[in-house]
Amino acid sequence: MEIFEIYTDGACSNNQSEGLQAGGWAAVFVNGKAISGGDRATTNNRMEMKAVIEALKNTPPGSYVKIYSDSAYIINCFNQKWIDKWEKNGWLTSNKKPVENKDYWVEIRQLEKERKVEWIKVKGHSGNPWNEKADKLAVASIPMVDKKNDNDEVSRKTKIYLSEDEKKDLINFLEENKSFISKSLNDLLLRLKE
Prior knowledge:
Blueprint (H helix, E strand, L loop, with lengths): L2 E10 L8 E9 L4 E9 L1 H14 L6 E6 L2 H8 L2 H7 L13 H12 L2 E6 L7 H12 L23 H13 L6 H11 L1
Parallel strand pairs: 1-4, 4-5
Antiparallel strand pairs: 1-2, 2-3
Helix pairs in contact: 1-4, 6-7
């Protein structure tokens, strides 16, 4: 049986704001492969979930997968059997309210059933190199969005302020993962080097 160890993470441009935000997700395979993407209008939880979905999609059915995440939302859902209760209750919470993000939970559940998945909680921002790599890639994958002109796709941008050390780390990270990153991240790398 093939074994995969994958660190997943999600990020949003302004996680404290109400409504949908631009967000990014990443899945870093311990064997070196990394995948990422983003969404212009999403939530942090959905990006955490999207990272898991894409991680599982990139493993073959029948494999053993260890998902490492700093998201209690993800890990508790499986380790505390919330998802089993939701399914049994017709995707309603114990308060009889519809489960949020049902579409992603259903997709994760189907992918999980095709594999043996172990859900492992890791502490975020604690120096774990795989978790840090997933975090940086998720943040780097957040689409640029300009709040002043949401109707104009071309001018959508997000401002991110980085210290010089953070900028160097991001450049190094993007350089190391150049073969895995999207064209937009390659463009960002070029702008950062200017």
